[in-house]
Structures are given as structure tokens and as C-alpha cells.
Amino acid sequence: MIKLHHPENEIELALLRSLLESADIPHYVHNDHFGTLHIGPPIPLLNRKTVMVAPEHLEEARSLLADYFMHASPAGEMPRQRYSLFDKLRMCLEFLTFGWLIPGNRWTRRRKIKSKANKRVYP
After folding, report:
1. Nearest one of 83, 28, 90 to 53, comparing CA atoms
2. Is residue 94 within 8 Å of residue 41, measured between CB atoms?
3. DSSP per position, 17-34
4. Distance (Å, rounded) from C-alpha 15 to C-alpha 3?
5. Residue 87: Cβ within 10 Å count
6. Cα 41 to Cα 117: distance, rounded to the nearest angstrom
7. Fold entry, domain 2-72
8. What is the torsional sign of CA 31, 36, 40, 41?
9. How confident is the model at residue 20, as a pLDDT?
10. Mean pLDDT score of the chain, rounded to an integer?
11. Partner residues linked to 50 by β-bridges
12. Whole-Å CA distances, 44 to 40, 62, 89
């Protein structure tokens, strides 16, 4: 499967699905049920949805979407979102920061085990 498009929202995804199904183009939506959860900070590189098609149907699907976006968008071209290096670094830092901010006992548990090991009295 080859990436075809990243829809901006659920409405655009439903529209793309209906276009592809009406043309009998088999497709797959990566992160179909996970992308709407947005647990934690929304990191588009990790939890956005991606419409994928088989390589033999790629040209037909691209022409179908290009025709739709040509008539739907005022600019007349397919919208593509490009991330700068700064945006990618920011997203990675948000992910790492979120990992460190998860509440729980994972760090205190290690300290307790180490402190118990140091307090053992040997005869």
C-alpha cells in the first residue's frame, strides 16, 4: 500500500472514502480508530490518519482526488502540509516530555527497591 493523502478531519476522510468506494478503488486507512482518540498531546506525525491505496490503483486514485481538490479548494491545488525541522523537533520534544510526565510509581518503585537493598543488615 502507498500513501495517498492525509485528511485534515473526519469529514474529509469520509468524503475521500466515499470517492474511492464509488470508483471501486480498494483502500486502507492507517490509524482509522486510533487517530481520533488524541490521548495526550496531539502529535500529527504519530496519530494522524493516512489513506493508502494499492500501487496498481495509485494513478486512478490520484487523478480522482486531484479532480475533487481542483473543484473544492479555492487555490486549485491539493493541500499538502509540510513540517519544518523546527516543527519536527518540537513534536519529538513534546512526545519525550509527555513520556516523562506520565504519573505513576515507576520511578519511586526503583528508589524503594534500591533503598531496601542498601538497608539490609548482614550478620
Report:
1. 28
2. yes
3. HHHHHHTT--EEEETTTT
4. 17
5. 13
6. 38
7. Alpha-Beta Plaits (3.30.70)
8. positive
9. 92
10. 76
11. 30
12. 12, 22, 13
Contacts of 25 (CB under 8 A, 6+ apart): 53, 57, 60, 61, 64
Amino acid present at 79: P
DSSP single-letter state for residue 57: G
Mean pLDDT score, 92-119: 63
User: How remote is the C-alpha of 112 from its chain's centroid?
Assistant: 37
pTM: 0.53
Cell of 32: 482509522
Helix (H) or strand (E) holding 50: strand 50-53
Q: Report the alpha-carbon distance of residue 33 to residue 35 in Å, rounded.
A: 6
**Looking at the predicted structure, is the pLDDT value of residue 115 above 70?**
no
Residue 102 confidence (pLDDT) = 54
Percent of the chain residues past pLDDT 90, beyond the cut: 20
For the chain, the structural domain boundaries read: 2-72, 85-118
Q: How far apart are CA 113 and CA 11, in angstroms?
A: 51
- Res 109: pLDDT: 56
